[in-house]
Amino acid sequence: MQTILHLAAAEQVLIAAGGTAKLNTTQLGVSLILSLAVLIFLVTVVKLHPFVSLLAAGLVVGIGSGYGPMPTLTSFTGEFGNTMGSVGILIGLGAMIGKVLMDTGATDQVVNTLVSKSSAASIPWIMALIGALIGLPMFFEVGLVILVPVIILVAQRTKLPLMRVAIPTLAGLSIMHACVPPHPGPLAALSQFKETGNVGLTMMFGIPFALITLVLVGPLFSRVAARWVPVQAPADFVAKSDEAGKEETKLPSFGISLCCILLPAVLMLLTSIFEIALPGFKDRTDGFAQTINFIGNPVMALAIALVVSMLVLKAASGISWKTVNDSLGASLPAVAGILLIVGAGGGFKGVLVATGIGKIIGNFVETSSISIFLLGWLIAVFVRVATGSATVSILTTAGILSNAMTMMHATPMATTLLVIAIGAGSIFLSHLNDAGFWLIKEYFGLSVGETLKTWSVLECLLSVVVLVLVMVASLFVPIAS
Question: How far apart, in Å, are the Cα atoms of 123 and each of 77, 111, 160, 165, 295?
């Protein structure tokens, strides 16, 4: 295998944004461990706001590794801005949609229908399927902000512990991120294997793997999580959603309510369907392709869904335009802190990436003799745990192993299994440097420890079960041509 990174005895030369930094690998490892220790200490002991804690942790790992004060600050602020540009707008629009759905009664109607037609025992399974459906074409953060009101109100109405409802839904959202195109994660990995990557084949394996994993982990682990963290739905969240009840309204129909909830997913899926059916569709410049790509863009899909929901649900519920319009502004204060935390999580990740964590891990490839699928999962896990980014984990791991797959003349089926294994590794152990970790903690009013015992453990279980399915399937498919 070609050398990925040339190391001197004790140090390496890394080219990073902001210049050339001479970093000692031992010093980098120590500074990374120290930064995580500082972050955990500030959040759990000092009770410092996570935004400030993440900023401090980023400075510790950047300056402590020898990367330099100014390059560290530049990497942090640059990735903070990138995170806000990619996730911040989506969180804001998603929060607005969620508030409109609540204040017009659409969320209530969906919850009432689910509760009235389902037993308490079946609710976790229904929520798992809803999470998977929403998660197929949608970024995790977007699906989360749309489904949070449903999760909390279902838990409140059924009197089920919050984890019995939240964990299956989160499992459905997350497993699609790992396994199934057209989600951006698996597509990004496939793009690194140009000769043997096949979207259709990956969907054929990915969908059953995702569903099997969801059945084995989601609703079943929710029982354990509910015992570990026996919390109920946040009462203040439900109280806010009930404020719209002061105005005389009628509930919109279940069909209209469900359509408004699913509209963003449908619009985003539309672009993916065309891309699967017509490779290169996203790069076409004709009017039809540009229109489809425009309305399927996550930002535009949410913006369109917001406008449609406001107009349709206003008419269906009889609520006043002022109340609908006021819902937009009322939704933002609740997510202001979340936006800062998510941005800081992105900034911390930016410093970790800039200091060369991914390149250091790449050395492991040269001396490994284990299964290529297990190796791909392990590298993705290492990058994921170190950087907190599933996307960085997927792209880094796929790039590292692309040459190895070419040299071993891997079949399309082998590439498919490797892509799924990498995707599984990329969701392993969401913790303090992951923006999704903080989203879930804040939305559900959990402590850091409670989030680790529920969400973080869930991610580990999903990741490991998918790996097991990949390893079993690899026994029955040709690996090399």
Answer: 42, 10, 9, 7, 33
